[in-house]
Specification:
Helix content: 10-25%
Order of helices and strands: HEHHHEEEEEEEEEEEEEEEEEEEEEE
Low-confidence stretches: 80-107
Length: 319
């Protein structure tokens, strides 16, 4: 129906404009409201079915429904961004336990705490790294002579770091822990920087919440990457594939940029909802996937990338 094309076209234009204004610093998204408003689309599809006319013409009432739904979406998702104001100021956030007190070792008065972790390389050839990160800034890049090095700075909660090394393999986990986060004044800060050894084969499992993720993996041998993000901004740069590498990225309301080498064998599959998608350097195939010019299923070294997204801006480019 023509009205459907108009509705979805306007929706993409509006969200594209909102993402642009947010990047320029004029607006602040209320990402959490997106998931509360998803029944609006069921309501729209219901009206669309009921008001469809036999001759294929559009019932004028449907345009009114579209305007109302778009207005509701914009009203509840966007608010003016206040200058020099922390978006978390004046909020009380409670996690698993609402009792008074905090996790042992956490900062309960808003003071910054520094956490540094390091694991020696020894004989490790393959390793898995699991990162459970909430809100804040997560970065990964550079190289270390050891197996892994991480430093974190936060003024709420604490970090748990676990390692298990068995000869030539290792399992490592890094997670942020906080029973209670309460801020009525000031800002909350939570940053983590992780550096890996470039000679080790890595399996990465990263889960984040409302965060800014800058992952430069171009120096690393990535066997697999599972990246899950909520309302986040994620930049991922991959190096040359080693073997048949599986890259799975799942995100909700976010801005996602993925960079892959132009001379690498890459196959991209997307499962997206309301997204603005830009793909450069890859060609669309008959089955709906995208591949680089050198891709071949029988290639020794290749990336199979799958992106699942809700409301997002997605860019996949070669470099």
């Amino acid at each position: 129906m023509k009205s459907d094309r108009v509705f979805w076209g306007l929706l993409l234009i509006i969200f594209g404009g909102l993402f642009l204004l947010q990047n320029l610093g004029y607006l602040s998204f209320q990402f959490g409201n997106l998931w509360r408003l998803w029944p609006l689309f069921l309501i729209y599809w219901g009206f669309s079915a009921l008001l469809k006319q036999k001759d294929g013409a559009t019932n004028p009432v449907l345009y009114v429904v579209q305007i109302v739904i778009l207005a509701i979406l914009v009203y509840f998702i966007v608010k003016p961004k206040e200058k020099e104001r922390n978006p978390h100021e004046g909020l009380e956030w409670y996690f698993d336990n609402e009792e008074e007190g905090a996790v042992e070792g956490e900062s309960s008065n808003g003071a910054m705490r520094q956490h540094d972790f390091e694991v020696p390389l020894e004989e490790v050839e393959k390793a898995s790294l699991n990162i459970d990160f909430g809100a804040g800034t997560l970065s990964m890049g550079g190289v270390t002579a050891g197996l892994v090095a991480a430093n974190a700075a936060t003024n709420f909660g604490t970090y748990a770091f676990e390692q298990q090394v068995n000869g030539k393999s290792a399992e490592i986990s890094l997670s942020h822990q906080s029973k209670k986060m309460k801020f009525k004044k000031g800002e909350f800060e939570n940053t983590v920087n992780v550096t890996l050894n470039e000679s080790v084969f890595w399996k990465l499992d990263i889960e984040t919440g409302a965060s800014d993720c800058q992952l430069d993996l171009s120096n690393y041998k990535i066997e697999s990457l599972a990246l899950k993000g909520g309302a986040s901004k994620m930049d991922v740069k991959l190096g040359q594939p080693i073997g048949k590498s599986q890259i799975d990225i799942e995100t909700g309301a976010s801005q996602l940029v993925v960079l892959v080498p132009a001379n690498a064998a890459v196959r991209l599959t997307t499962e997206t909802g309301l997204t603005g998608t830009t793909i450069e350097g890859l060609s669309k195939q008959k089955d709906g996937t995208y591949t680089t010019s050198v891709y071949n299923d029988s290639a020794k070294d290749l990336y199979k990338i799958k992106i699942s997204a809700g409301v997002a801006s997605i860019e996949v480019k070669t470099y």
